[in-house]
Amino acid sequence: MVDLIKDLVALGGTIILRHEFGTTELRGNDFIVRDTGSWLTLYHGTCENPEQRSHLHLRKDSYKFAEIVENPGFTPFVAFWKSENREEAVGEKKKPTFAIYFPSFYSWNNGDKTPLTENQETFKKWCESNDSTWKFS
After folding, report:
1. Which helix (H) or strand (E) holds 122?
2. Model-level pTM?
3. Residues above pLDDT 70, as percent of the chain
4. pLDDT greater than 80 at residue 110
5. What is the DSSP letter of 41?
6. What superfamily in CATH does domain 2-135 come from?
7. How far is residue 13's CA from residue 75's CA, in Å, rounded to a whole number?
8. How is the chain split into domains, by residue range?
9. Cα–Cα distance list, 74 to 20, 46, 61, 77, 115 (Å)
């Protein structure tokens, strides 16, 4: 799981953590992952100290399964689940509690949905050399 998260974070997409009361989004292409035993910390690499700016502490043993989710017209993401039955999904659309989105497939400047072909190609190449589901012990 650690290697997958590091690989996804390096792409510069969006990191999402949800629960039934709200959603946190971390954006930027400067996040790094620090492995400290039972925890992962995702924070801005431009910080002298991870506690200095916005960051995320994630328990490594929280998730046992991950999968790429693709919906037409939207940017794909990797959903992390406690188990393959996805019981912890939250919200009306049953979204994962933790997800990492690939770099956006679309630019929304001026309200237009302009395809970003470079990001779509990055995703395609990434999929060619990676699995689409993962099981963690």
Report:
1. helix 117-128
2. 0.93
3. 100
4. no
5. E
6. HemS/ChuS/ChuX like domains (3.40.1570.10)
7. 10
8. 2-135
9. 22, 30, 29, 9, 10
